[in-house]
C-alpha cells in the first residue's frame, strides 16, 4: 500500500467546547508544520447539478394546495420552485437549463408500494439486479418497496448501493418467516426501524405472513398473532402484513386494534393485497387508519386464474377487490404491482408488464384479456384515474414513510420526476393504453431517457447523481449523510448512524482533490470520552492518518491538517468508541482549487 510520507501520523487531540452562538472552534495538534496555501472552505453538497426549468406542459403535483402547475425548477437534487410558467423567469438565472415539455405531462416519480422486482428477478428473466433496476427506471419507477428482503438480498442491495449501482430508491421490508410461515429467526434484530443506509436504501419495516394458500391457511392463533404484533409494534417497527381472505383480515384487524386502541396509526402499519374484506372490515380499516397496499389492476388482471376464480366464489364477489369502497370510506390507499407474478397476462398495445402506466390503464378499465368488455361488477369496484395516480405516487410514499421527501412535486422535496407522452389533463381512459415514459429523473439526475426524447432530458443518462459521494455504515431515518454536509450547524441538522459504535462516514471525490484541512463538528449526547480514527483514501487504498481521543460534547470541533497539501480520493471517519451513537453536526473540508486546461 502506497501512502504520502508526510500524511501518516497518529494524533492525540483535545477539543474545546463551543458556546452560543454555535461557531465552530478547535484546538488542533497539526501533523508537522503546515504550509499556508490559498484555500477555499467547501461543504460538498450531496448532489450537484445545474438549475433546470421544466415548462410548456401540465405538471400534476399531487399537492392538494396546488394540484396543477405549469413550471418547475430543479436545483441540484431538490425541487426549488413550483408555480405558473408566466412567473418562472425571474426565479432563475440566465444559465438555467430550459426544458420545453411540448405539452407532455410532468409527474412525481412513480412509487411501487409492493414489488419483488430485484429479489425475484429470475422469475421474469432478468439476468441481474442492474437489468431489473434499469427496466424499472425505463417504466417510470423512482422508488420501490421490496417486500421480501432477507439477509442475502439485503447484503446484495447494500453492496450494490456501496458500488454506486443502486439507481432507484429501495425501501426494504424484512420477513420474519417464509411465505409458508416457517420462521427465519430473529435476524432482523440486527437492524433498526427506518434505518437508512444511504439516500437510495433504507429499511421500511417488517413483512408478516399470517396466511398462505390464498388466505385459506392461517399460520397463527389469535393469541399468537396478538402477542407478535404487540411486541413488534412496541419495538417501533412498521408492519406490512399480508392478508388475502376475510378470515385473515379478522385476525389481523383484531391484533392491530389491540395495539392502536383509539390512537392514530403513527407507525403506518399496512395490509398487503387485501383481496377479500367484509363491509365491517372496511369500517375497521377506516377507523384504525390502516394503510392498504393494493394492486389496482385486480380483479381484471386475475380473471381466468383457476385458484382466484375459486377464491372469489368462496369469499363472495361483493367482498373481492373492493377498491372503490375502500376509497369512499377514506382508507389510505397505496398502489403496487406485486411484480413479477403470473397473473398479469400480456395484452398487446398497452405498456409492458411491471409498468405503472399499465397499472393506470388496467385499474381504470379493468381490462381482463379474457372478457371484452369486463364484467360489470369489476368496473363497480374500480378506482378512477386520479385515485390510481395518487395511490401510485403520494399514497405509496405515505405507505412507506417517505412522503416527507418524495411522492409529490413540492418545493424542498427530492427531484424524483417523470415525463409521460401526453397531456394527462386531456387524456381519455382508452388513450391511456398508448402512453409512454419519456424521462425518469431520480434526485435531479436523469436515469432514463427514451430514444428520440433527448431534448426532454437534462444532463446525461446514468451520470453520477453527485460530484461527491457520501456513504455511511448506517443512518438514522431523518438524519442521513446529507445533513453532515449541508452547511448547517443547527442542532437539528446532524447525521446519525442510529447504531452503537463502531460506525463510519465516508466521502469519495470523483477525482483526486487537494485538501489542506478536514474539520468534524461534533454532535454528541451524552458527552463522553470518544475515540475516532481518520483514514485517507489515496490511489484507491485507505491509510490511517489520525486518531482522536478526547472528552467531547456537541459543538466541539476535531481538525486534521496535513504537513503539506495532499491529494486524496476521499476519506473515512470511524467512531471506534463513544457513549452514544456516532454523529456529526457538520463536516468541512479546505481544498485548493486547481485550474485545468
Kindly report the oligomeric state of this protein.
Answer: single chain
What's the helical proportion of residues? 10-25%
Largest sheet: 9 strands, antiparallel
Distance between the termini: 31 Å
Low-confidence region ranges:
1-49, 462-466
Number of strands: 28
Mean pLDDT: 86
Report strand %: 25-35%
What is the number of helical segments per DSSP (H or I, 4+ residues)? Answer: 11
Measured on Cα atoms, how large is the radius of gyration?
26 Å
What does this structure look like?
By secondary structure, the protein is an alpha/beta fold. Helices cover 18% and strands 29% of the residues. It has eleven helices and 28 strands. The chain has helices spanning 129-138, 151-162, 222-234, 246-260, 279-288, 306-315, 323-329, 356-365, 376-381, 385-391, 394-400, and strands at residues 40-42, 51-60, 68-75, 78-83, 97-100, 105-108, 110-115, 141-146, 169-175, 196-198, 201-208, 211-212, 217-218, 239-243, 270-273, 291-294, 333-335, 417-420, 437-442, 445-449, 469-472, 495-496, 503-522, 528-538, 541-552, 557-560, 566-577, 583-591. The strands form five sheets. Strands 1, 21, 22, 23, 24, 25, 26, 27 and 28 form a nine-stranded antiparallel beta sheet that branches. Strand 8, helix 2 (151-162) and strand 9 form a beta-alpha-beta unit. Helix 4 runs parallel beside helix 5. It is globular.
Amino acid at each position: 500500500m502506497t501512502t504520502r510520507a508526510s500524511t501518516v501520523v497518529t494524533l492525540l487531540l483535545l477539543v474545546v467546547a463551543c458556546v452560543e452562538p454555535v461557531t465552530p472552534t478547535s484546538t488542533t495538534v497539526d501533523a508537522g508544520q503546515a504550509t499556508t496555501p490559498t484555500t477555499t472552505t467547501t461543504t460538498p453538497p450531496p448532489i450537484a447539478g445545474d438549475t433546470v426549468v421544466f415548462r410548456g406542459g401540465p405538471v400534476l403535483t399531487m399537492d392538494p394546495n396546488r394540484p396543477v402547475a405549469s413550471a418547475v425548477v430543479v436545483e441540484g437534487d431538490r425541487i426549488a420552485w413550483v408555480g405558473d410558467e408566466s412567473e418562472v423567469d425571474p426565479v432563475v438565472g440566465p444559465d438555467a437549463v430550459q426544458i420545453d415539455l411540448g405539452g407532455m405531462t410532468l409527474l412525481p416519480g412513480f412509487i411501487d408500494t409492493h414489488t419483488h422486482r430485484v429479489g425475484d428477478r429470475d422469475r421474469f428473466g432478468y439476468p441481474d439486479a442492474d437489468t431489473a433496476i434499469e427496466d424499472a427506471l425505463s417504466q417510470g419507477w423512482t422508488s420501490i418497496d421490496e417486500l421480501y428482503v432477507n439477509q442475502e438480498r439485503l447484503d446484495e442491495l447494500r453492496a450494490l448501493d456501496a458500488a454506486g449501482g443502486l439507481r432507484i430508491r429501495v425501501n426494504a421490508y424484512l420477513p420474519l418467516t417464509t411465505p409458508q410461515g416457517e420462521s427465519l429467526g430473529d435476524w432482523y434484530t440486527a437492524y433498526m426501524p427506518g434505518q437508512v443506509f444511504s439516500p437510495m436504501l433504507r429499511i421500511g419495516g417488517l413483512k408478516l405472513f399470517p396466511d398462505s394458500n390464498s388466505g385459506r391457511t392461517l399460520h397463527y392463533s389469535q393469541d399468537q398473532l396478538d402477542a407478535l404484533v404487540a411486541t413488534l409494534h412496541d419495538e417501533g417497527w412498521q408492519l406490512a402484513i399480508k392478508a388475502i381472505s376475510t378470515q385473515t383480515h379478522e385476525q389481523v384487524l383484531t391484533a392491530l386494534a389491540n395495539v392502536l386502541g383509539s390512537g392514530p396509526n403513527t407507525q403506518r402499519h399496512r395490509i398487503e393485497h387485501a383481496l377479500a374484506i367484509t363491509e365491517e372490515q372496511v369500517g375497521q380499516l377506516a377507523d384504525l387508519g390502516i394503510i392498504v397496499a393494493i394492486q389496482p389492476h385486480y380483479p381484471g388482471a386475475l380473471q381466468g386464474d383457476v385458484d382466484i376464480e375459486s377464491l372469489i366464489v368462496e369469499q363472495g364477489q361483493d367482498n373481492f377487490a373492493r377498491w372503490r369502497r375502500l376509497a369512499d370510506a377514506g382508507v389510505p390507499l397505496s398502489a403496487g404491482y406485486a411484480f413479477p407474478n403470473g397473473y398479469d397476462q400480456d395484452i398487446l398495445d398497452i405498456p409492458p408488464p411491471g409498468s405503472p402506466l399499465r397499472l393506470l390503464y388496467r385499474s381504470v378499465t379493468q381490462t381482463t384479456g379474457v372478457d371484452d368488455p369486463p364484467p360489470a361488477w369489476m368496473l363497480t369496484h374500480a378506482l378512477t384515474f386520479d385515485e390510481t395516480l395518487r395511490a401510485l405516487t403520494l399514497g405509496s410514499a405515505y405507505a412507506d414513510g417517505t412522503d416527507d421527501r418524495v411522492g409529490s412535486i413540492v418545493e424542498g422535496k427530492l427531484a424524483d420526476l417523470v415525463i409521460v407522452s401526453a397531456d394527462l389533463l386531456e387524456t381519455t381512459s382508452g388513450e391511456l393504453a398508448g402512453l409512454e415514459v419519456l424521462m425518469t429523473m431520480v434526485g435531479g439526475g436523469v436515469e432514463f431517457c427514451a430514444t428520440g426524447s433527448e431534448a426532454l432530458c437534462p444532463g446525461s443518462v446514468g451520470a453520477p447523481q453527485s460530484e461527491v459521494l457520501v456513504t455511511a455504515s448506517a443512518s438514522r431515518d431523518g438524519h442521513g449523510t446529507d445533513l453532515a454536509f449541508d452547511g448547517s450547524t443547527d442542532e437539528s441538522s446532524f447525521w446519525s448512524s442510529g447504531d452503537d459504535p463502531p460506525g463510519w462516514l465516508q466521502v469519495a471525490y470523483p477525482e483526486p482533490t487537494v485538501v489542506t484541512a478536514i474539520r468534524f463538528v461534533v454532535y454528541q449526547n451524552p458527552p463522553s470520552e470518544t475515540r475516532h480514527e481518520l483514514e485517507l483514501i489515496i490511489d484507491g487504498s485507505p491509510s490511517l492518518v489520525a486518531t482522536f481521543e478526547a472528552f467531547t460534547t456537541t459543538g466541539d470541533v476535531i481538525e486534521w491538517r496535513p504537513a503539506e497539501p495532499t491529494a486524496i480520493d476521499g476519506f473515512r471517519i470511524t467512531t471506534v468508541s463513544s457513549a452514544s451513537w456516532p454523529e456529526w453536526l457538520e463536516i468541512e473540508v479546505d481544498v485548493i482549487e486547481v485550474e485545468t486546461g
